[in-house]
Amino acid sequence: MIKTDILIIGAGPTGLFAVFEAGLLQLKCHLIDALPQAGGQCSEIYPKKPIYDIPGFPEVLAGDLVDNLMEQIKPFQPGFTLGERAETIEKLDDGSFIVTTNKGTKHHAPVVAIAGGLGSFEPRKPLLENLEKYEDNGVAYIIKEPEVYRDKKVLIAGGGDSALDWSIFLADVAKEVTLVHRRNEFRGALDSVEKVQQLKNEGKINLITPAEVVALKGENRLEKVTVKDTSTSEETDVEVDDFIPLFGLSPKLGPISNWGLEIEKNAIKVDNTYDYQTNIPGIYAIGDVNTYPGKLKLILCGFHEATLMCQSAYQKIHPDKKYVMKYTTVGGVTGFDGSKKEAPKAVVKAID
Amino acid sequence: MSDIKIKITDREGVSHEVDAPTDMNMNLMEVVRSYELAPEGTIGICGGMAMCASCQCYVQSDHQLPEKSDDEEAMLSEAFNVKDNSRLGCQIHITEDLDGLEVELAPEEA
Questions:
Q1: Contact (CB, 8 A) for A63 and A47
Q2: What's the whole-model pTM score?
Q3: Can you say which residues of A are annotated as belonging to the binding site for FAD?
Q4: What mean pLDDT is reported for chain A?
């Protein structure tokens, strides 16, 4: 059981900044995110896109913003449960919560802050009959352990970076790699496109374009994939051990919508007059995942909401303590790792 | 600058005729959202970067639309339920030429 003060669901910019604000109040945080890396949409959807409305940054790449936030919160030693989705929540008699992920990891905290953005990112699944029958039985949407594919016949579908990068990587691992895409053009880093071209020329990647996977076959396990050439409509069966459709991810509010929280317009209603608490005391919702009159889904608004949430969480965790907000310029930043950052002291020295 | 009329058929098959401003730097996806013709969180998920297909629509009138950018073309090649007249709403800028445009929202991806 992982224990912490504030359990944050969602490791996007809002969730990450909450760690900093909580840390200033000497509260520890742990974050859960369905994605394998921190940063939320900033890392997953648009790491290379510039953002122009972060106060103090005339221009910052989304990926760099995440890197900066990670650096900023490092002294507060946040814990991470990545690649797992928060599935269920249980309220204990003392008012604290146990949140369990889809992998069964349990987290215990007096305060839960949902910073889930648009929800957890789930792989986009192609519309194929029998698809579910072969899931974990020859069909996977995420490559967790590439060694699984050693000496196997793998067919990857998709035209983006992940399809290209994994085709390149698996060309050295798998017995056979086939890449199927609906167009001749790929949308990915130039290096990756050129590398795939080279591997194709060397006969290490079997490229089928423009084409799409139209059927899956196999008795108990996936055995064959039917690939249709979209220019001639000709269908061919390709013998495979594994089929990996990589069509990107799309966010779903998911299990959180069954936690008894008031939901409006696919977002969680909160009290914006005070602390962004939901209808369940002890559960807050901050950033893009919440809604209130006048809500704007902006990163800078998420930062503000995270800050007020932490103040309220502090009162909830320490009802008997008085606290006065301290400026970091005055109080410095004292990390849980023993590090201390503070403004340099003025020197008092006589001039002869 | 004036408003133009656009006919939008929502995902339930209900048709709406709406006024869209040409002077607000808006795109079709934003028009759909401003009239709440599709639930929040089911359209414009990436914010208009042509990086998801949640604003896919089928263009039913024969208006001359701007060419698809590489990004839009690539996204549509990975989207589901794509037809020959599919476009991403976020890539269609509202201009006076589009007066009378008729579109139907593509189904939400499961």
A1: yes
A2: 0.83
A3: 14, 33, 41, 46, 86, 121, 288, 329
A4: 94
| Domains of chain B, start order | 3-105 (3.10.20.30)
Q: Which long-range contacts (CB under 8 A, 24 or more apart) does A203-206 make?
A: A204/A171, A204/A177, A205/A167, A205/A168, A205/A171, A205/A177, A205/A178, A205/A179, A206/A176, A206/A177, A206/A178, A206/A179
Q: What is the set of domains in chain A, with CATH numbers?
A: 2-121+250-341 (3.50.50.60), 131-247 (3.50.50.60)
Best of B77, B86, B109 to mutate (most A CBs within 10 Å, chain A): B77
| Rounded average pLDDT over A9-25 | 98
CA dihedral sign, ordered A177, A183, A188, A194: positive
How many angstroms away from the CA of B93 is the closest CA of chain A?
20
Q: Can you name the residues that pair with A113 across neighbouring β-strands?
A: A8, A284
Residue with tokens 């519309």: A127
Q: How far apart are CA A157 and CA A321, in angstroms?
A: 57
Angle between helix axes A13-24 and A299-317 (nearest 10 degrees) is 40
ipTM over 0.90: no
Whether residue A6 contacts residue A27, with contact meaning beta carbons closer than 8 Å, is answered with yes
